[in-house]
Amino acid sequence: xxxxxxxxxxxxxxxxxxxxxxxxxxxxxxxxxxxxxxxxxxxxxxxxxxxxxxxxxxxxxxxxxxxxxxxxxxxxxxxxxxxxxxxxxxxxxxxxxxxxxxxxxxxxxxxxxxxxxxxxxxxxxxxxxxxxxxxxxxxxxxxxxxxxxxxxxxxxxxxxxxxxxxxxxxxxxxxxxxxxxxxxxxxxxxxxxxxxxxxxxxxxxxxxxxxxxxxxxxxxxxxxxxxxxxxxxxxxxxxxxxxxxxxxxxxxxxxxxxxxxxxxxxxxxxxxxxxxxxxxxxxxxxxxxxxxxxxxxxxxxxxxxxxxxxxxxxxxxxxxxxxxxxxxxxxxxxxxxxxxxxxx
Length: 344
Ligand SMILES: Nc1ncnc2c1ncn2[C@@H]1O[C@H](COP(=O)(O)OP(=O)(O)O)[C@@H](O)[C@H]1O
Ligand SMILES: [Mg+2]
What we know:
alpha/beta, 28% helix, 24% strand, binds adenosine-5'-diphosphate, binds magnesium ion
């Protein structure tokens, strides 16, 4: 199992401006295993969508990929560095191997085309299927996301917001990609509609074995869906673990703060960024650990040395001086109470 499908190493995406370089993504390391749902979380503006756009090679000027490697290892095919591919090779990878549901794409359906035509267009462009085969596949993909076959004949305006979002996900599934990347597909939808989307994504994983990279700023949504969760802060990954472990205990002080701001079920939905305050300046990140100015546990070295992302327990990666002593290479495991102390 645990075979890596996608591995992102030291990815840096910068944006030119007259004021300088905005280091929006600045040294991201992340792996996605085959057949898992990996969640990417972090407050709005931390760089989640930019990471995804780099994977899809959709960064446009003034943005550019300053450094990094994104290895994609499709089943039965040689591994490729997505950052090295030319436009033609990329066209072959998109949809067929990796498909993408962009943020706020719910209203990107063509308003004057029936859903079946929109699914068929993708298939015609990327495969040689016949008309009846296309119809059969279109019915299948709608079923996978929990939509009835009659939706094929519908125009977008005849569908609810949640149905449109599921139709978009269905279109992403038409060519049986090995990886589906969905960026905030549940954001701005009400809780019941969100549930239908989450069920659709779980069903995709269960029925087709497709790997999913799921982006959301909403931890409550991750709790219901993902297998592992990566927490991003200020252009970097600060902690990764199984969603179960992370909800039980967070080691990075930023993760602790993020989790403590989860709105209570049934309570009013407070935007997380307002609780966490303004994120630091992307033109001028704080030195050392970027979280140190906001960290209640900051030590002298936190402003001087950047903490590396280290696997402190199997599958649990943290970038924090409280968890790893860079001078002695010693791992410092947190206690059950979430306190940090050196092991005996
Ligand atoms: N052209 C640009 N120039 C400067 N900054 C940009 C540009 N495009 C995006 N950004 C900044 O990158 C930051 C991260 O954006 P994004 O990846 O969308 O974050 P997230 O998806 O986590 O909310 C945002 O603060 C945004 O303002
Ligand atoms: Mg985003």
